[in-house]
Write a structure and sequence with these properties.
Distance between the termini: 15 Å
Shape: globular
Oligomer: single chain
Structural class: alpha/beta
Strand content: 5-15%
Number of domains: 3
Largest sheet: 8 strands, parallel, barrel
Length: 284
């Protein structure tokens, strides 16, 4: 298990171009990012300069707060735009040796039929897979929780996993994000739909029926990449309600050997919140 740093969330104490050096100085050997706000040549140069591997990049998306803030992949009226942005991301990934491209599903507005949007997303993923070279990156998809993004196409982990399994291509994997999974479970607990090991602090811990660790175990065969952040506020692992001791134990038990990306909002500065990396070291 190898930790990597998401440069959009960690090392925000310094300007974007300096985050590569900061990550390397903190002991990271890999970094990931949504879409870098620096030139591609600069990204490649800084990766090489600091001995970093590029783990993941997102397909470029629209402006924050816009209907395109999570991309165009599910929009039947924007297939050309999706293909353009995916081609850009693929060129970036191939030139930097990036392992994964995250293809965000996008928002499905109320006036767009969900089944049509889902079919469009699926068709776009199949098209994108056809563009990959044998030694190129793997694609990943993610379920973003509905509390924060109620219009996001994929309703949760179950739907995202069903999509990956239905396409059945080894170059398409699931991005498992502990924060989004934790919020999904917490919201279900609040709604009384299931009891979980995540509960309101005033209620204490409920009996373990579904935990983030067990959800990962259900998806293990299709997971390509992991991102960690605590729920409910996307803070450092160990500062919220997720049982990360159980989660990291599950990673060891299930012999996870991939990257584990830190994608969270540090509560006391980036360096102060990196203790979770120690849990990735195999226990005797």
């Amino acid at each position: 298990m190898v930790p990597d740093a998401n440069l959009a969330w960690l090392f925000t104490e310094v300007d974007w171009p300096d985050r590569f050096a900061a990550a390397a100085a903190a002991g990271f050997t890999g970094v990931e990012m949504p879409w870098p706000p620096v030139a591609l040549d600069d990204v490649a140069a800084r990766l090489e300069e600091h001995g970093l591997s590029s783990v993941l990049v997102n397909v470029p998306v629209g402006e924050p707060g816009s209907e395109w803030a999570f991309g165009w992949a599910c929009r039947p009226d924007a297939v050309d735009r999706f293909r353009e942005t995916f081609t850009t991301a693929l060129a970036h990934a191939e030139s930097t040796g990036t392992r994964f491209i995250h293809v965000l599903a996008g928002l499905c507005p109320p006036d767009l039929d969900h089944d049509l949007a889902y079919a469009t997303y699926r068709e776009n993923l199949v098209w994108a897979l056809d563009q990959l070279h044998a030694d190129g990156p793997t694609l990943v998809v993610e379920a973003i929780n509905r509390r924060d993004q109620p219009l996001f196409l994929l309703s949760g982990l179950t739907e995202a996993a069903r999509l990956v399994r239905s396409i059945a291509n080894p170059r398409l994997r699931l991005l498992f994000d502990t924060f989004h999974c934790g919020v999904e479970l917490l919201e279900a607990e609040k709604a009384g739909l299931r009891r979980t090991a995540i509960a309101e602090p005033s209620l204490g811990w409920s009996p373990t029926v579904a935990t983030v660790a067990s959800r990962f175990a259900e998806m293990r065969d299709i997971v390509g990449h992991i991102q960690v952040g605590d729920a409910p506020d996307r803070t450092d692992p160990g500062t919220g309600l997720i049982d990360f001791t159980a989660f990291f134990a599950a990673l060891r038990d299930l012999e996870w050997v991939g990257f584990v990306g830190g994608e969270y909002r540090p509560t006391a500065g980036t360096l102060a919140g990196l203790g979770w990396r120690e849990e990735l070291t195999p226990h005797p």
